[in-house]
């Protein structure tokens, strides 16, 4: 039985877990974000997390289980800008303009690795990691689904024509922000990414507004 408390947890019959699980997970997430799943070694992970091997296995199970948790931590932490940008007020185009600006800021934020943990992850993992590749493909698909949902709302609200191909627009913008992640990892700064976002919005139905 695990009882959660103030940044720590107690296990079993009063045996304390002597580390902050949330903080350890955050540090592991940043290692995975920077190094990728295969590139992050076990020794690097436990050193960054500040835990012993036995504590690691007791708390997280194994590397893959930790990685899946780290992905969740990214989505609710550094990657949380994505749904927030789309959910804001204004037209569908306003939402996508916010998304491009927020993406440029997030991907070049110097408080963490550059780029996007989700966009850059799991593309060249070993064949035995097919389940992990499938997991990451599903995670990446969630962002496209959010864009389709916002575009559908735009059609319902009259922001976009009824015959708008929302799937095509979502595909286009997904390609843009996935590419922005790669450019950020290669050293592109925020201004460069923002310019790319502005150019992408020129492809919006009706062009500039």
Biggest sheet strand line-up: 1-2-3
Termini separation comes to 57 Å
In the CATH hierarchy, the architecture of the largest domain is Orthogonal Bundle
**Which structural class do the helices and strands define?**
mainly alpha
Q: How many distinct helices?
A: 9
Biggest sheet statistics: 3 strands, antiparallel
Into which percent range does the helicity of residues fall?
A: 55-70%
CATH domain topology of the largest domain = Tetracycline Repressor, domain 2
* Total count of strands: 3
CATH class of the largest domain: Mainly Alpha
- The stretches of 5 or more residues where confidence is low (pLDDT under 50) are 1-14
Q: Return the average pLDDT rounded to an integer.
A: 90
The global form is elongated
Cα Rg = 20 Å
Beta-strand content: under 5%
Domain tally: 2
Q: Write out the CATH superfamily name of the largest domain.
A: Tetracycline Repressor, domain 2
Order of helices and strands: EEEHHHHHHHHH
